Structures are given as structure tokens and as C-alpha cells.
TrEMBL record:
This is Aquaporin 8. Its main location: membrane. Keywords: Membrane, Transmembrane, Transmembrane helix, Transport. It comes from Nothobranchius pienaari. The chain crosses the membrane at residues 53-73, 80-100, 120-139. PANTHER family: AQUAPORIN 8B-RELATED, AQUAPORIN-8. It is found in: Membrane.
Length: 140
């Protein structure tokens, strides 16, 4: 991707997150939507959970990013199994980290629901963790 496209790409990701959350709200009965806090991440309830949540998001995002980089980008390790491997990695991450942080892996995924239900408590974790994980994967 050309550097000039990074800004528009990020804006489009955030708009997509809000639109996706809006569609989910339209398709979900109001009571169920409210019971699920509008899909906004509310797993972290106190400061004592911050280290585990940030560490979990960094590690889980790093794993997914490494699978993509090694399986789809690196010409020496490219494989047609990448769609399966990425999906399997995400499933494993959700099962392993769901109770710790909610397993966001993408700030835009956290942004959309947070905007719709105005839930910003510990929202920054879902930016710091995934961005940190992507940076670690890029360095490795």
C-alpha cells in the first residue's frame, strides 16, 4: 500500500466499523442488543485487568498478523492454506482470549459499537493492543 493511502484507508475502516455496528443494531431485537451492550467491549471491568488485556491483545494480534505475513505476503512461505490458517488462528484467539479482553484484534471493530452505545471505558486498550501486536509482528 502506498503511504498516501494509509489515511483514507484508516478512515474507511472506522466508517466500516460504525456501519457494521449500525447494521447489527438494526437486525437485533432491542432487548438483546442492550443485553449485549451493543457489542461494545465491556470485558475489562477494573484497572487490575489492564495488563492481561493489553498483553492478550498484543499477542493475539501478533499471531494473526504473523500468519498473514508468513502465509500470504512472504514469497518463500506463501501457501494456499492462508484463508483456513487465518480463520483457525482467529477462532483460537477468540477461545483463548475472549474472557480476558473480548478478543478485539482490530480497533475499527471496537470503534463502531463504542460510537453507537457511547461506551468508552477502557476503549483505548483495543487500540494500543492491536497496534502493538501488529508492530511486534512487523519487527519479527
Amino acid at each position: 500500500m502506498e503511504l498516501i493511502m494509509v489515511g483514507p484507508y484508516l478512515v474507511c475502516q472506522l466508517i466500516g466499523g460504525v456501519l457494521g455496528a449500525g447494521m447489527a443494531k438494526l437486525m437485533t431485537p432491542e432487548q438483546r442488543y442492550q443485553n449485549a451492550t451493543g457489542a461494545a467491549f465491556d470485558t475489562i471491568q477494573s484497572h487490575s485487568q489492564l495488563f492481561e488485556a493489553i498483553f492478550g491483545e498484543v499477542v493475539m494480534t501478533c499471531l494473526v498478523t504473523m500468519v498473514v505475513l508468513l502465509g500470504a505476503v512472504n514469497s518463500k512461505t506463501k501457501t494456499p492454506l492462508v484463508p483456513f490458517l487465518v480463520g483457525a488462528t482467529i477462532v483460537i484467539n477468540i477461545l483463548a482470549g475472549g474472557d480476558i479482553s473480548g478478543t478485539c484484534l482490530n480497533p475499527a471493530r471496537a470503534f463502531g459499537p463504542a460510537v453507537l452505545v457511547n461506551h468508552w471505558t477502557y476503549h483505548w486498550v483495543y487500540w494500543v493492543g492491536p497496534i502493538g501486536g501488529a508492530l511486534v509482528a512487523a519487527v519479527l
